[in-house]
Amino acid sequence: MRKAGLLLGVWARAWRSVRMASSDMAHRAPLANKVALVTASTEGIGFAIARRLAQDGAHVVVSSRKQQNVDRAVATLQREGLSVTGTVCHVGKAEDRERLVATAVKLHGAVDILVSNAAVNPFFGNLLDATEEVWDKILDINVKASALMTKAVVPEMEKQGGGSVVIVASLAAYTPFPGLGIYNVSKTALVGLTKNLATELATKNIRVNCLAPGLIKTNFSRVLWMDEAREESIKEIMHIRRIGKPEECAGIVSFLCSEDASYISGETVVVAGGAPSRL
Prior knowledge:
Number of helices: 9
Number of domains: 1
Number of strands: 7
CATH superfamily: NAD(P)-binding Rossmann-like Domain
Largest sheet: 7 strands, parallel
Strand order of the largest sheet: 3-2-1-4-5-6-7
Helix content: 40-55%
């Protein structure tokens, strides 16, 4: 009896180990063998998202407008043992969008995930003081390019039987940031774009969701936090009174792209330290 009990104990411990290993593997790789494109992903939030998707098992193609930035990001992530490649992509150019998709298909045979993160903001001041050229540039890159980038990946996602798109907007869609009027408008438009695309692409089994970061410490948001008084005033509206980190956005995106979010589409997740968010 004692020997049988010992054997049973050994068997039970071994079985627990197998289950734990299986659970750990599933936890580590919820995006195993998925192919992901992330625009504007060589620094900041985009880079953190690319890293997290790769850590969770995806083959990631990073991109930005400058080759040296792509090379640096790819080298950094490959040194971490991650499946990451990259190519130059100015999302405002049709040929660049097409090359980004073609690169993923050539290297990995598919596209399962798109994270549309590219944005510009060349103007700081009163909205009505902006020129028509500024309006055109911000809306072209921040809004139109997201729609056209999605259009470019849909045929490849259809071949896979579906896919996931995450559009990166901003808390500014709900609570306008002072001095960033046109940028704020463009981010509000992305929330609407998300809802429209989610409706139109549902029959193709393509989910479309949105991430709305608050104040995250990146070079892109420097104008909001480089001035201590402005930073403190922004912190006053947050329940969590600090600036966020890019990594705090990345896990949300990975979740939205995974099977854990298979019944979520057309939604916007605000990651803003508890700052108010309502339209």
